[in-house]
Fold these 3 entries.
Entry 1:
Amino acid sequence: MSTQADHGHELVPRPQHTPDALRAALAAVDPARLEEMQATKDDAFAKAVEWQSLSPVQSWVLSWARDIEIARRPDLSIRYARAKGNLEHEDPAIAQEALRELSAVLGEAMNAVRE
């Protein structure tokens, strides 16, 4: 596990960017998504072979590291859930703000895992 800035209470430390470490962290913070993780991993590795490129695997790692960052940090998780819940709000201004907030949360999480 790597070191990170203090963002308040974190459910688990930020995992290293390896499939095993990501899987262990996901098992701790959102075990219902383990099957999804495995399916997307299989797809990424198949594309890597087909394309003769590591980019699908690298994208898989970053995508799951980002999602785990959100799940392991209650501050981000709450913001993410609230924004996602308002995406289809009947008030267009609320839906637009939800889209901005969702983008901000995803960006903050991605920046954190790229530190």
Entry 2:
Amino acid sequence: MKISVEEGQEKGFLSDGRHTVEITGIEEGKSENQGIPYFAARMENEEGFVLQRFYLSDAGRPVIMGLYEMVGIEPKAGHDLDTKQLIGKKLSVEVGDYTYNDPNSGSERTLRQASHFQRV
């Protein structure tokens, strides 16, 4: 079997710990369980990457505002934020695993995630 490697797929996940990363891409979608809109930011450096989802919900809004602030974009009432503004921005993130129970199957799932955003 041959496995093709596309541009950007040559890296593995970032290891646990704090990393300085650049946001290199944004994907948009809806959650599998409740259909909540989200954007996923690909954050990477020379060592690897992490893909972090940001949900457009009441609970997720403070996290999104914090992300924008950490990359130097000040959210202002009455002005829309464009996720494309995030591409090319750098920040420091804490990378680790997050384990939860899947609401559909009840089985345990583990995701690699970025959290505790800081300015660089």
Entry 3:
Amino acid sequence: MAVNSKKIAVYVLVVFALYLIITDPAKAADYVQIGFEGISDAAKAIGDFMTWVANGGKS
């Protein structure tokens, strides 16, 4: 019986996240903060690009 590799990857990721939270909550919080900062920076960059496109590509 073949096991779906996507399910295995998700399972491993969840187990790793739980392990990290249990063993070092402060480091887990730092990782979450870094992730949200990355998402925020990406959203800002997309917004800046869309504004540039809406202005006809002018600086």
